[in-house]
Amino acid sequence: MVKIRLSRKRFPQNQAQLDLGLRRPTENDRNFHLGGRSFYFFDFDDNVAYLTTPIVIFNKDTGAEKTLSSGEWARYHHEIGQTGAFENYYVDYNDETGSFRYFRDQKHSFIDRMVGRKQTFLSDIEKALNQADYSWKAPSWNTFFHATYNNRPTSVITARGHHKITIKQGIDLLVKTGHLPHNPNYLSIYPVTNPDVRASELEDPELKSSVADLKRAAIRNSVEKALELYGDNPHHRFGMSDDDPKNVELITEEMKCLKKKYPEMAFYVIQTFEDSFVKTEVLETKTKTKEKGQKKDLPEQLDLL
Predict the structure, then answer these.
(1) Domain extents for the chain?
(2) pLDDT tens, 1-40?
(3) DSSP H helical segments within the chain, as ranges?
(4) Taking CA 120 as the corner, what is the angle to CA 248 and CA 222, rounded to the nearest 5 degrees?
(5) How far apart are CA 167 and CA 87, in angstroms?
């Protein structure tokens, strides 16, 4: 049976976006008839949306700051302090003054709040929404929209360290401006470098784990929560989308562990690039590349789930 959802008329400022006022069918999960659900896990930056939030690295000799985009960080962070153009730079992990200060919630004074100063995640999303859609919608945007529209249980697993409520407020801006029909059906939100999240939920009280390891733990927790909320059904399907090669490597390792624990369920890893993607199914003893394609094919190719 095909259901029709009538969405409230919200019109995005950018006319390139799909008109959410149109009637369109909702779709059941792939294994709905067997009682299975499809669970979507998303990295946010450069995967769902391109934001201008900078990462700051520091010159070893002068302390001068140099900013990198999140995409540049994903490509070159292993070279910082080691080799190449970034050999003479270092990363400072101080949350308030260091390299990732714009990826954390800052302490705002009463005056800051009175004048409307916002957390950078919110202000950067607002900046993006003033640009053309194609400049800020990243490779997994259409899949994120699809998951949201069809109320798929969705997890946001991001390297950012904001409070969870800040992540929700940022995504709510996409709803208020008409780019999403409503808020996602949140299964979990993991800003994995948030100190409280690391210590209380990801078993990293000494704050020593890498982002990739933290994402592994967040995926594991999200799968367990999915089974707790939706039942232990062998026809469940799980997929994680990320753009960072190192993260993808360890996400795949975690999916292999989950596949061994739940062999009848399906697990997928989608590595996105600027204009293409690779979708891999994790089997019990190996991985199998399911799809390769261009960004324009992504909605159909990622409807795995």
Answers:
(1) 3-49+120-301, 55-104
(2) 433 343 444 444 444 444 444 567 889 999 999 999 999 9
(3) 70-76, 110-114, 120-129, 133-136, 141-149, 164-176, 195-200, 211-230, 245-261, 298-301
(4) 35
(5) 33
